[in-house]
Design brief:
alpha+beta, Butyryl-CoA Dehydrogenase, subunit A, domain 3, 10% strand, elongated, Claudin domain-containing protein 1, CLDN1, membrane, transmembrane helix
């Protein structure tokens, strides 16, 4: 028999876990982790340059400097698996005073995720930047690990419900704690990687960068996982102590 306090804690932890998992899943699948605000283009002077940047961004070979420069110049957004630019919907660039803008995105392939970063973006002779390389790899591997831990915890919890046992609850709580730490580490790796990129890249004048809502979703999911873990651990420990006390009382 499960005490009502423990049952309530388990229900609340399940709700927190579901919310955290949904937030993290949405964050991983969207591209609004970091976004740039570029100044509007006046006249025809830079139209051909911007068009070539856009074409290279959409169809050219993968190159960090090329896609970074395009993101800087075309109101780009970048996530864990996507990079996008904001361009006019028609082929005649910047002919209208207020053209309709559309977002065009390109996904990072798995091979591109493991591509080394260089000390000078675009210059392969400058040597590999190990710190940026492993920060980039960690930022897309850690959320996948976090989601995997939550799925594993859910499977264990489902089996525990079928067996009417609270014994695995402590382990489920520890899995949620690890998931929360992995998510927090993802955000930290991403922010550190972007800061290092901006140090080695030259941002054009009047280009501003800001954090996007996808990153905030991931940031919110981390404490939700940890709160779920705290409730699960409390329920497991309290129920265990209460069980041992009742057993000792009956023996006495």
């Amino acid at each position: 028999m499960v005490d009502n306090r423990y049952a309530t804690a388990l229900v609340i932890s399940c709700v927190l876990s579901v919310l955290a998992t949904v937030y993290l899943s949405v964050a991983v699948g969207t591209q609004h982790w970091y976004q740039y605000t570029s100044p509007p283009v006046r006249g025809e002077a830079n139209v051909s340059e911007l068009r070539s940047l856009h074409d290279e961004f959409m169809d050219g070979e993968f190159d960090e400097k090329t896609y970074s420069d395009t993101l800087f110049r075309l109101n780009g957004t970048i996530g864990l698996w996507w990079r996008c630019v904001l361009v006019p919907s028609h082929t005649h660039w910047y002919k209208e005073s207020d053209p309709k803008m559309v977002m065009k995105c390109v996904s990072f392939t798995l091979t591109q995720q493991f591509t080394p970063k260089y000390k000078e973006p675009g210059n392969h002779n400058s040597g590999e930047d190990m710190l940026r390389t492993y920060l980039w790899r960690c930022q897309f591997l850690l959320p996948l690990i976090s989601l995997g831990l939550v799925v594993l915890a859910g499977l264990i919890g489902f089996c525990a419900c079928l067996c009417h046992s609270l014994t695995p609850t402590l382990g489920i709580g520890m899995l949620h704690l690890l998931a929360g730490l992995c998510t927090l580490a993802t955000v930290c790796c991403y922010l550190a990687g972007m800061d290092l990129l901006h140090r080695v890249s030259v941002l054009p004048d009047k280009v501003d960068g800001s954090l996007g809502w996808s990153l905030y979703l991931a940031l919110i999911s981390s404490p939700l996982h940890m709160m779920a873990a705290a409730l699960l651990v409390w329920a497991a420990r309290s129920h265990s102590q209460n069980y041992y006390r009742m057993t000792a009382y009956r023996v006495a």
